[in-house]
Amino acid sequence: MRKLTAVLLAGALAMSALTGCSGGTKEAPTTAAPQETTKAAETEAGTVAAVDNSDKTIYVIVKVLGNQYWSVLQAGAEQAGKNLGCKVVVVGTALESDIEGQLTLLQNAVSAQAAGIVIAPLDSVSLDAPITEAFNSGIPVVLVDTVIKSENYSAALLTNNVEAGKTAADEMIRRLKERGISEDEVAQIGIQVGSTGSQTIIDRVKGFNEYWEANAPEKWVVLNDDIKVNEGDISKAVGFCQDLLTTYPDIKGVFGPNNGSTVGFVTGLTEAKRTDVTMVGFDFSAEIETMIRSGEYDVASVVQRQYFMGYDGVKTALDLANGETVAEKSIDTGVALVDANNVDTEEIQGIVNP
Length: 354
Prior knowledge:
Layout: H1 2-6, E1 17-21, H2 38-45, E2 57-64, H3 68-84, E3 87-93, H4 99-111, E4 116-119, H5 128-136, E5 141-144, E6 155-158, H6 161-178, E7 187-193, H7 199-215, E8 220-222, E9 228-229, H8 234-247, E10 251-255, H9 259-272, E11 278-282, H10 286-294, E12 299-304, H11 306-321, E13 330-332, E14 335-338, H12 346-352
C-alpha cells in the first residue's frame, strides 16, 4: 500500500445531480453469506407497508450518479420506497473525486430534515466529521458500500472488503497457474484505483496484497509502487491500462478493485487485444459482461449485492426513523465470483439482474 496510501486527493469543484422518485498455500478466502437472500428480498418486495410512511423522505447519496454499479443500488433503494410507502430521493456526484460535492448533498439532506440518510461516502476521512454531525443531529444515517473512520452512524451494509480483496488475489493466482505461468517466471500485476480516500478500495487492495504476499510465488510481484489513480474518470482509466501494458513487458495480470477501474482495464485490454493478460475486477458492468461472454479473455469479476444494499439501506433507515433498532450495526452483504462458467446461473443472475 506504499503508493496508495501516499497519494493525496486534490480538492474538486462541487457538482451534483438530483433526481426525485417515490509460502505454503493457505486455504482460499471465503466471504460471509449475505443477510438478505434474493428470495428474502422478493418476499419483502411483495409486502405492503404496515405503517403509513408517506410523510417520510429518505435521502440516498451515492458516489457517482449514473454509474452502472450505483444505478443498481439506486434501483434497489427506489424499489424499497415504492414497497414501503416512503419518498426516496437519490443524489450523487459526477466524479469520485468530488468530495465537496457530496458534502453539499449531505448538508442539503440534513437541511431538508430527511427522515433518514443512506450514504456511500466518497472519502472515509473527509466525510467522517459531516456524517458524524448528521448522525448527532438525530437523523438515522445508514452507510452503504463504504464506512467512515468513526463509529458515528446508525448501521452499515457493505462487503467485507479485505476478504473480498483476498478472494480476488486467490482467483488471480489460480488463473495464472492455469495459464501455465511458471513460478520461476517474472510476472507483474498492475493495479489502478478510483480513489485513494475510499476505505472500501483501501481495504480491497490491502486484502489483495496480504493474500498475494502469503501465497504467490516470489517472482510474481504486484506493482504497488505504481498504482494508478483514475478518480472515476473512465478515459483516464483506459489510458492507465495502456500505460501499464506499455511500461511493464512482464505484466501478466491486472486488478481493478472498483467498477470504474475494472471498466478501464476491460476497455484497454480489448482495444489492445491483450488476451494474454489475466484480469480480475469488481462489479458487473456491460463492458465486463461482454468481455466475459466473448470467451477470448481470461477474466473474472467479484460481484457485490448492491441492489440489496440499496433496498435494505432504505428499509433500515426507515425502520430507525420509526423508532426501531438494528440487531447488528454492521452487516456483510457478501460477494460472488462471476466468469464465463457461471454467468448464466440462477445464483449469479439473481445478483446482477435482481
